[in-house]
Design goal:
Strand content of chain A: 15-25%
Largest interface: A-B, 33 and 24 residues
Order of helices and strands of chain B: HHHHHHHHHHHHHH
Radius of gyration of chain A: 19 Å
Number of strands of chain B: 0
Order of helices and strands of chain A: EEEHEEEHHHHEHEHEEHH
Distance between the termini of chain B: 61 Å
Oligomer: heterodimer
Structural class of chain B: mainly alpha
Structural class of chain A: alpha/beta
Distance between the termini of chain A: 65 Å
Number of helices of chain B: 14
Radius of gyration of chain B: 21 Å
Number of helices of chain A: 9
């Protein structure tokens, strides 16, 4: 057995997107998008509505075929069912009235590995329970998914991605619509998962969270405006270019005093 | 005492009543299980459309002297697949696609019949149902198709659940989501085909959605909704046939009315979720206002 010492600058690429162009019915949603995310990173995907964030996540999941360019996940082309990539959809795309328990939903993370017809066994149920424990939802396992609070619902969806044994988690707006406490708890969870070696790529509108807590940011508006450390990405110039309006950028620690 | 015994035993002395009961129960059970997906996925409109579309196939089969069953089955399945195909293209909304296709197929049926000199009760039996004139061959065919449908639901339980609950994630997990979405449409179409003969084109949708919707008010998991829905469908068939026998009513109408009555009861009295419990506590609140 040999020990390899990894140098920080040679860390493995979790995501390598290169020259990616994609869209729907002739409309271009992503135009020559190129960026990389290192393994074990908490990375934010930021851009205005309609900037192609969800399309990018779909291409990375292998759900949408790009017109050109490539997406390498841990060095290989992702195809559905491979299991490396976990995903939590925007909460408004989830049917919260469906009669399934929290445990049922998390167990679905195992379905891809099982393939057709085979039923989940004890091993799969154990993995699902462990994932629920990991996100501190074990006590709610038998509740209906719709009865959970907003923060608990996001954590249930993350547990499903964990049950899948995914190394890369794509989260589509997990912070949206949460109160401050729930947002704080979810961010702590994301940071813990990063510490455990997961790579997280989080689409969000919350620039301040990304600026404060994330390692890496990708700023897009159909094309990549900037990517790298949040401090380098969230400059007034680049944000204004992405959002096509003038934004005030306050240095951290600035206090705004109300009237 | 013997009056009561007669009341309950009387109808089943006749073979056509026994046959009708078996057919109605078979169809109710299958329809409630498939109907659980119908109510959860908001497919009520398509399950009303497919029976009407199948009438087009029935009419063509009648004109050609072929099997009415087969004609109805082909029309229902083809319409279901076309609706799925057009909806997936995303150019028009799926309920629009459903409306265009089923009325077109139904009109085709009417056009074909209008050219027939001797269209008879056979066709009207399909429109209004004729549970008491099913033959043993019909019962066997219904049982065979019904068992096949239930077997598909059991074998692919995990896939149908995942596809219905979260199609995007199911596709990302490598499941052939489109195949199962089409599969569900075909299940509904085949259920419609076996239900048409007993319950009729116009009332089929009631067997698919009413017992499952009633069960949804009372229990909380998909298997429980399927099981209780099947029980409610069975009860509706039995009570409906008693009603038809003793009150001399149309059998299919009696079955559907019984199912509707059970739904209304559940809607009013379901534990915790019934309308009654939402109204009563409010009236019990004492507004203590010191005067």
């Amino acid at each position: 057995m040999t020990l390899t010492i990894e140098h920080a600058s040679h860390r493995e690429c979790a995501v390598d997107v290169s020259g990616l162009t994609a869209g729907y019915n002739g409309h271009t949603a992503l135009d020559h998008v190129t960026f990389t995310i290192e393994r074990g990173c908490l990375a934010g995907l930021v851009g205005p509505n309609g900037s192609g964030k969800s399309t990018l996540l779909k291409v990375m999941l292998g759900l949408h075929k790009p017109w050109s360019g490539s997406v390498l996940i841990f060095g290989h082309t992702e195809r559905p069912g491979h299991g490396d990539v976990g995903y939590t959809p925007q909460t408004e795309l989830v049917d919260w009235t469906f009669p399934v328990s929290v445990f049922d939903v998390v167990l679905m993370g195992r379905y891809g590995k099982l393939g057709l017809v085979r039923r989940p066994g004890k091993g799969d149920r154990d993995v699902a329970m462990a994932a629920l424990e990991r996100v501190h939802l074990l006590h709610l396992a038998q509740r209906r998914i719709g009865e959970l609070s907003g923060g608990e619902q996001r954590r249930a969806l993350i547990a499903r991605a964990l049950a899948q044994d995914a190394e890369l988690l794509l989260l589509d707006e997990p912070l949206a619509g949460l109160d401050a406490t729930a947002q704080h708890d979810l961010l702590r969870l994301l940071e813990e998962l990063r510490t455990e070696g997961k790579t997280l790529f989080v689409a969000t509108h919350d620039l301040s969270c990304v600026a404060a807590d994330f390692d890496h940011a990708v700023l897009i508006n159909r094309r990549v405006i900037a990517f790298g450390r949040p401090a380098d990405v969230f400059t007034e110039e680049k944000l204004s270019e992405a959002f096509q309006r003038h934004l005030f950028v306050l240095p951290q620690g600035t206090t705004i005093i109300g009237p | 005492m013997s009056d009561i015994a007669d009341f309950f035993a009387d109808p089943w002395r006749l073979e056509f009543m026994r046959r009708g009961l078996i057919a109605a129960v078979l169809v109710s059970v299958v329809a409630a299980v498939v109907g659980s997906y119908v109510i959860l996925k908001g497919m009520a409109f398509i399950s009303d459309a497919l029976p009407h579309a199948s009438f087009g196939g029935v009419a063509i089969a009648f004109a050609l002297g072929g099997s009415l069953y087969l004609g109805g089955a082909i029309a229902a399945v083809v319409t279901a697949l076309l609706i799925g195909f057009i909806s997936r293209r995303g150019l028009i909304k799926s309920d629009t696609a459903i409306g265009i296709l089923f009325v077109g197929a139904f009109a085709l049926g009417l056009a074909v019949i209008s050219r027939q000199d001797n269209y008879t009760g056979d066709l009207f039996a399909f429109v209004f149902g004729s549970v008491l004139s099913v033959t043993w061959d019909d019962v066997w065919l219904t049982a065979a198709i019904g068992v096949a449908i239930l077997a598909f639901v059991v074998v692919f339980y995990k896939e149908l659940l995942f596809t219905a609950y979260d199609p995007a994630m199911a596709a990302a997990s490598g499941l052939p989501v489109a195949a199962f979405q089409y599969g569900l449409l075909v299940l509904v179409a085949l259920t419609v085909v076996i239900a048409i003969q007993t319950i009729g084109v116009i009332l089929v949708v009631a067997l698919l959605i009413t017992p499952a919707a009633t069960a949804q008010l009372l229990v909380r998991s998909l298997p429980a909704i399927m099981g209780l829905g099947a029980a409610i469908g069975t009860a509706s068939s039995v009570i409906g046939l008693y009603l038809a026998w003793h009150a001399d009513l149309s059998a299919s109408a009696s079955i559907v009315l019984t199912a509707t009555a059970l739904f209304v009861l559940a809607f009013l009295f379901a534990p915790a979720r019934g309308i009654l419990w939402q109204v009563v506590p409010r009236t019990n609140v004492v507004h203590s206002r010191s005067s």
